[in-house]
Specification:
Length: 387
């Protein structure tokens, strides 16, 4: 089959590789009909999360079940499914607590900062197409993918909805939803979302659905701010226009936002690094969007982080956290926890997810699309690949 393979930073190509096969009775094979490139893929592409071996990337995908293992009872050949990006067994200590991204069976080994194996129960679930650290599992930017724990993870989806309408339920909409759940966004909140990439815009859509009074998107790229205005009906601030915290305080009678969401993560380090190539390692943390969130949130406010941070140690704005009594939460989104409810929201027309798609191309063009999405050229917000 054809698949998008990561070789080394900035080197990905669509190669001919072996077809996936059933390895466990609980597996299924899916013929991928649509798959997307995610900002998380860029961390691997840019070498920010190291990946020493070739790996098929892609954790946002859906398709048609081709084959099921002997132990699979809930899926059958021909079912049309979406596949959550975290792989969870559905029956371990953490899955029982509805914490699928902490499943202790899908990724049994956790590595520490020096590459040492950490012996602790639960390792952070395996993720499709997301480095050795997350289980070295082949991803879904491919013609076929092997799905693990097929009775627990994939969801059969209504035929009436197109791929484009539901594809983002595999990751970015549940991730935006997680950001709002974790920050307990509720009626009347002023919510500031840092980042108007796909994840930030989904967080903005989710904030409205949680009852926010005002939703404000922050980015540095005018075309992405325009997309946030159009797709999420948000107010926007260009981070290049001054001190965002000060601007938000001016907009909120001097108080600051009730909730800030970091939908940027390490990306901010990269853009900052591009501006000041000689920046010191120790300074990077202090330039993080997390710090911007802590500056911008009101006293007693809430911050949630869905942008990925990958460095083992980082400067952390402890002073503001303590002094302002900030509540903080973050992590990989617990997609499976909310997925059935979110499918319903989309099916009932309460939210549209496909309006951020700017590029839809055959899988064969995936390598070039990584470059376009990474450089944020050609008005690119979200790329969908069609195997
Ligand atoms: P993206 O790269 O398309 O978007 C990031 C956006 O942040 C860009 O529009 C960029 O211009 C903006 N940005 C950069 N520096 C900024 C700054 N200092 N202030 C404001 N905006 C700034 O990526 P994406 O697909 O939207 O993903 C965003 C983040 O979410 C990534 O870190 C990704 O890995 C992460 N993610 C996390 C989860 C999860 O489960 N937690 C799931 C999916 C994605
Ligand atoms: Zn993703
Ligand atoms: Zn589990």
């Amino acid at each position: 089959m054809k698949a998008l393979v990561f070789h080394k930073p900035k080197h990905v190509s669509v190669d001919t590789v072996d077809d996936p096969v059933i390895q466990e009775p609980t597996d299924a094979i899916v013929r991928v009909t649509s798959t997307a490139i995610c900002g998380s893929d860029l961390h691997i592409y840019n070498g920010m999360i190291p990946q020493p071996h070739d790996l098929i990337l892609g954790h946002e995908f859906m398709g048609i079940v081709e084959e099921v293992g002997t132990g699979v009872t809930k899926l059958k050949r021909g079912d049309r499914v979406i596949v959550p990006f975290p792989i969870a067994c559905g029956h371990c200590h953490f899955c029982d607590m509805d914490l699928p991204t902490h499943c202790e069976n899908s990724n049994p080994e956790m590595y520490g900062p020096q590459g040492e194996i950490i012996k602790m129960k639960g390792a952070g679930a395996a993720l499709y197409g997301y480095t050795d650290l997350y289980g070295a599992v082949s991803g879904g930017q491919a013609e076929y993918a092997r799905i693990q724990y097929a009775d627990y993870n994939p969801r059969v989806v209504p035929e009436l909805l197109s791929d484009e309408q539901i594809l983002f339920l595999t990751d970015i909409f549940p991730t935006g939803w997680a950001a709002c759940e974790w920050a307990e966004v509720s009626n009347g909140d002023v919510v500031v979302v840092f980042g108007c990439g796909p994840v930030g815009i989904m967080a903005q859509k989710a904030a409205w659905l949680h009852g926010a009074k005002r939703v404000i998107g922050v980015d540095r790229l005018p075309y992405r701010l325009e997309m946030a205005q159009r797709a999420a009906n948000s107010e926007v601030i260009n981070a290049e226009d001054g001190d965002v915290a000060e601007i938000v305080r001016e907009m909120t009678g001097g108080y600051g936002a009730d909730v800030c969401i970091d939908a940027v993560g390490m990306e901010a380090h990269r853009t900052t690094l591009q501006k000041a190539a000689n920046v010191l390692q120790a300074e990077k943390g202090s330039m993080s969007v997390l710090k911007d969130c802590f500056d911008t949130v009101r006293r007693g406010g809430r911050v949630s982080v869905v942008g990925v941070y990958g460095s083992p140690y980082d400067n952390y704005p402890l002073y503001q956290w303590f002094e302002k009594s900030i509540r903080l939460m973050g992590g990989q989104a617990w997609v499976q926890r909310w997925l059935d409810d979110l499918i319903k929201l989309v099916a009932e027309g309460k939210v549209a997810l496909d309006d951020i798609i700017t590029h839809k191309v055959p899988l064969s063009e995936a390598a070039g699309m990584y470059d376009v999405f990474n450089k944020k050229e050609d008005g690119c917000v979200k790329v969908v690949l069609k195997p």
